[in-house]
């Protein structure tokens, strides 16, 4: 994302800031909630002692467990084992709810497996580390990310890929190194992991390949958003598509991922950002993130959406982003791209086994590209810190994504809000409500 094309944002009236001096320059940083300062100081105090009371021992805590497909989560006592080599045990401060959590809660078939602890957008404090972990230490504030990065394999060292060879991305029920679980219920039965994170628990164990240390002054209820959804959308525009200043883009689906794409495109200097959705109220929300035009997908009559976009743009959008997760929408997005250089980026996830069918003649003659974007093409440990800095510098909007917050005991309310389309992101606080919002 070129810095010179990124508009500066006005200070949010709901945020509080402190000054911080670095290299002789004074920076304006978001003031952290008292909760984060307290947690960090507590864990730093533990880190200064020879060993904390829990280090190397199992921890009993509460977790929200999904036991049957489609049923509400059950908050129950579980045991979290100590971290194994290469792992980190984290005390979760807060976690956000993503549509992927809802999808896996409701899914009947593979990769569904129960009982399971969902959740994958979180901020936490390191409680203890396993053998050979040097990247973080007790008391560090961290965010887990869904995409591993070992830093050593050919893919991690390449600028062309964000897929790790050693730790490939999977919707796995196990820890990545040894294929076992760190969770058991009160009867000693195994509880399965989700996306190597499982943040709907007061404590969780995450591989160091999925951990990013962050500045403790960054509000946890904003940092957690970069563990999956917002990073994916912003990164898709920035890294996968490489949106240039003056570009025209079309976004199919104005949920939180689609709005994050709009935010990324805005930061990259896109001139025209077209939102496509069935709900016109999404346009008003989208304007906050740079959406300039709206196509009501339900009021196109006999004319396909792609025809509207081709006519609006004089030949098609430079970049189209599919953020719904439906094969038919992928085809419509592809058809909406300009011939010769148009690029369609797929971010939505359709049901297992879903296929798309393209005319080989059109693929050859139209000269357009179609590609997927896992985690927005971002290398987590290299690029997420850049996004965090852009938030601190008031360039990247994160505050606007958080529309609701609940206490941990009300986690099912968060599922209801997101399922009915009443929120973008709902932050779930593990122990107390934040005073930041």
From TrEMBL:
PROSITE patterns, sorted: ADH_ZINC
Ranges for domain Alcohol dehydrogenase-like N-terminal: 85-214
Stored Gene3D superfamilies: Medium-chain alcohol dehydrogenases, catalytic domain (3.90.180.10), NAD(P)-binding Rossmann-like Domain (3.40.50.720)
Skewed-composition ranges (Polar residues): 11-25
Domain Alcohol dehydrogenase-like C-terminal stretches: 257-381
Reactions the enzyme catalyzes: a primary alcohol + NAD(+) = an aldehyde + NADH + H(+); a secondary alcohol + NAD(+) = a ketone + NADH + H(+)
SUPFAM superfamilies: GroES-like (SSF50129), NAD(P)-binding Rossmann-fold domains (SSF51735)
Keywords assigned: Metal-binding, NAD, Oxidoreductase, Zinc
EC code(s) of this entry: 1.1.1.1
Enzyme class: oxidoreductase
Disordered: region residues: 1-29
Gene Ontology MF: a single term: alcohol dehydrogenase (NAD+) activity
Cofactor: Zn(2+)
InterPro entries on file: ADH-like_C (IPR013149), ADH-like_N (IPR013154), ADH_Zn_CS (IPR002328), GroES-like_sf (IPR011032), NAD(P)-bd_dom_sf (IPR036291)
Assigned protein family: Belongs to the zinc-containing alcohol dehydrogenase family. Class-III subfamily.
PANTHER family reported in the protein's UniProt record: ALCOHOL DEHYDROGENASE, ZINC-BINDING ALCOHOL DEHYDROGENASE FAMILY PROTEIN
Subunit: Homodimer.
Identification of the protein by name: alcohol dehydrogenase
Organism in which the protein naturally occurs: Phaseolus coccineus (Scarlet runner bean)
């Amino acid at each position: 994302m070129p810095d010179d094309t990124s508009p500066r944002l006005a200070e949010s009236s709901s945020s509080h800031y402190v000054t911080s001096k670095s290299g002789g320059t004074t920076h304006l940083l978001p003031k952290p909630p008292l909760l984060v300062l307290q947690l960090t100081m507590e864990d730093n105090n533990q880190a200064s002692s020879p060993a904390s009371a829990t280090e190397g021992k199992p921890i009993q805590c509460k977790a929200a467990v999904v036991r049957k497909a489609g049923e509400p989560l059950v908050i129950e006592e579980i045991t979290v084992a100590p971290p194994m080599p290469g792992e980190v045990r984290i005390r979760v401060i807060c976690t956000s709810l993503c549509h992927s959590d809802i999808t896996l809660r409701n899914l009947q078939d593979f990769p569904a497996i129960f009982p399971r602890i969902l959740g994958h957008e979180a901020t936490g404090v390191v409680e203890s580390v396993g053998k050979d972990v040097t990247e973080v230490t007790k008391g560090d504030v961290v965010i887990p990310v869904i995409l591993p990065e070992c830093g050593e394999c050919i893919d991690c060292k390449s600028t062309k890929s964000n897929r790790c060879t050693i730790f490939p991305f999977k919707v796995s029920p196990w820890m990545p190194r040894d294929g076992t679980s760190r969770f058991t219920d009160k009867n000693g039965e195994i509880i399965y992991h989700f996306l190597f994170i499982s943040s709907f628990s007061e404590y969780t164990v995450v591989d160091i390949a999925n951990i990013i240390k962050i500045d403790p002054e960054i509000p946890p209820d904003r940092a957690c958003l970069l563990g999956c959804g917002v990073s994916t959308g912003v990164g898709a525009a920035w890294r996968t598509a490489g949106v240039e200043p003056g570009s025209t883009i079309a976004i199919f689906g104005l949920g939180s991922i689609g709005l994050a794409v709009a935010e990324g495109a805005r930061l990259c200097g896109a001139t025209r950002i077209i939102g496509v959705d069935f709900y016109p109220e999404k346009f008003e929300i989208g304007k906050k993130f740079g959406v300039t035009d709206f196509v009501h997908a339900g009021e196109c009559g006999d004319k396909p959406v792609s025809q509207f976009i081709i006519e609006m743009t004089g030949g098609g959008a430079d970049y189209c982003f599919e953020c719904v997760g439906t094969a038919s929408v992928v085809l419509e997005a592809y058809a909406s791209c300009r011939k010769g250089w148009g690029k369609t980026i797929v971010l939505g996830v359709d049901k297992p086994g879903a296929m798309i069918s393209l005319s080989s003649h059109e693929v050859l003659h139209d000269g357009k590209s179609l590609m997927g974007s896992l985690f927005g093409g971002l290398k987590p440990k290299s690029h997420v810190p850049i996004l965090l800095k852009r938030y601190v510098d008031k360039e990247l909007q994160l505050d606007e994504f958080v529309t609701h917050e609940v206490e941990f005991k009300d986690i099912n309310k968060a599922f209801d809000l997101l399922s009915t389309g009443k929120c973008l992101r709902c932050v779930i606080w593990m122990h107390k409500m934040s005073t930041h919002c």
